[in-house]
Amino acid sequence: MSMLLPIFALLAAAQTAASPPSAPTPKPTAAQLAAAAPAAAWAAIDPKDLLLLDFADGQRSVIWLAAEFAPAHIANIRTIARSGWWGDATVYRVQDNYVTQWGDASEKKPPAAGIDRHPPAEYEWAWGAHGRAVANPYRDAYAPRTGFTPSGWAVAGDGKAQWLPHCYGMVGVARDLAPDTGTGGDLYTVIGHAPRHLDRNIALVGRVIDGMAALSALPRGNGGGLGLYEDAKMRVPIKRIVLAADLPPSERPAYQYLRPDTPVFAATLEARANRGGPFFTVPAGAADLCNLPVPVRKAPAPR
Amino acid sequence: MSMLLPIFALLAAAQTAASPPSAPTPKPTAAQLAAAAPAAAWAAIDPKDLLLLDFADGQRSVIWLAAEFAPAHIANIRTIARSGWWGDATVYRVQDNYVTQWGDASEKKPPAAGIDRHPPAEYEWAWGAHGRAVANPYRDAYAPRTGFTPSGWAVAGDGKAQWLPHCYGMVGVARDLAPDTGTGGDLYTVIGHAPRHLDRNIALVGRVIDGMAALSALPRGNGGGLGLYEDAKMRVPIKRIVLAADLPPSERPAYQYLRPDTPVFAATLEARANRGGPFFTVPAGAADLCNLPVPVRKAPAPR
Predict the structure, then answer these.
(1) Which stretches make up the PPIase cyclophilin-type domain (chains A, B) (predicted)?
(2) Which SS3 state, helix, strand or coil, does residue A83 take?
(3) How do strand B255-258 and strand B42-44 relate by DSSP bridges?
(4) Residues of chain A found within 8 Å of residue B201, distances taken between Cβ atoms
(5) How far does the CA of residue B41 sit from the closest CA of chain A (Å)?
(6) Which ranges constitute the DSSP H helices of chain A?
């Protein structure tokens, strides 16, 4: 019964079905294009920029730190990770269609030693400050110009300033009311439709590139209209928060991103905006910036 | 320690803090505007258009059916609900940042008696077909025009055609490859950033207006690259799927939507695009269509 199959059948499934001999080759998907990209199109992510959240149940979330975008906050984050301050960190807030937040649920711990307690507002930069961005040809609801830096980050802007967008999986620094900027001790990630109104109002410091489900599939909280876990027993302990660079080399995970300044990256944009294959009838001819994540993968084992 | 407070403190919290007497009155939020709206700005949702998913653990998800947008599919859904066909329904697919899907995990059940096995592609309509839409003044990444029908639905379109957008919480009919349209026996809801590329490619039939967490906070599946639960034990049984109208009046939940053709609704749009209060430093001046959900509430108890 065809209608009882799950939606969004894989192209592969379609190709194994009996097709007329004249059936055109299905247009490759963005994932297929990325998988076929030459090794030179992939760039390594520095292990200093990989923050690992290890949960008691064995799950791991991997955050790619946007080092060049929020250097003061990320210096704090590295210091906090090395200090042991996160030894009793928990996930204490999960608000549906918004954010999951972790750090010090008590809100009472003194800040970790050696951090900048009042880092500057690392919210926006001059357009092009992080290298010449590859332009995104598709319209954005929030910013007149968007693109992708050579270093692998989507940026929104207006040709004068640029900033990181609050897309699904982006990680930011929890803060109190303006002009506080937060220290980095409490972080959140977006688990719903992109709350782009937060852009330029909070410091974004990275992106979850693996193990997102450990943060998104948690029970929602009910406290304070903010998704706080009112019952402390709901808090999810994080066994360890560590930089990949601080692990022995044999234990370090390694990741790569698809370089935006490559033809294959441009092809992935087009493939996402105009999806081919036997499922789609009407191509969108458009793609939201947050539906154009820069592809990331685990580094292939050396041969 | 101000930076240890959760982000996004409520306006209420800010107002209770010591403020200089000259502090300006904070701009009301969209939620505050809706809460203060006159009773006449709210319209009742027909109980025939409320589909209830009752889970074994007591959670309930409430789906508002978009009856005028997909009449053939929704006739099927009402027939299926009354037939008992969903008696063994489960959630069998949860794909992170995409969809949760439920229905017949076996993919082998014959369709429910009396349904249209091949409903038409209810994907788009003439612009204005559902009443004169209130224009959304903000730019959309996918469609040149967007708005809100008097009946409470966000629509995207181009001035000739209009269609429902795949926003967070929207419910669609799972189908196999085109031109199959699905029957309504298997449904999904969006649990991540809006996959608007699905617009006009699948029949949308409603919106989750309450109890979304029962569908979004589930463990993610790993099967087939589609989030299928490979282990059948992970499937989440749905104890009952029933129309509110088919319950005794005393057991019927009642909901209302804020009428888009009211001044207060227009004010909520502006309040979402340009957030005030002590948290936001830079107003977005924009709002994605999927960040502008038509407000819905439980009907107040009669006095």
Answers:
(1) 62-225
(2) helix
(3) antiparallel
(4) 279-282
(5) 24
(6) 11-16, 30-35, 71-83, 213-216, 263-273
Single-letter amino acid code for the residue at B200: R
Q: What are the chain B neighbours of A194 within 8 Å (beta carbons)?
A: 193, 288, 291
Cβ-in-10-Å burial (0-12, 13-18, 19+) of B157 comes to: buried
Distances (CA, A) of A37 to A32, A45, A262, A265: 9, 17, 10, 9
The SS3 assignment for B197 reads helix
Q: Who among B3, B175, B197 is closest to A275 (CB)?
A: B197
Query: A163 has which bridge partners?
Result: A156
Query: Nearest to residue A66, comparing CAs of A164, A184, A156, A166?
Result: A164
Structural contact between residues B190 and B170, judged by C-beta atoms closer than 8 angstroms: yes
pLDDT of B138 above 60: yes
Tokens 């002009």, located at residue? A179
Beta bridge partners of B208: B63
Nearest-CB residue to B176 (from A2, A179, A217): A2
Interface ipTM > 0.95: no
Neighbours of B278 (CB within 10 A): 18
Q: What is the mean pLDDT of chain B?
A: 92
The domains of chain B, with CATH numbers, are 44-107+119-296 (2.40.100.10)
Q: Which residues of B touch A172 (CB under 8 A)?
A: 7
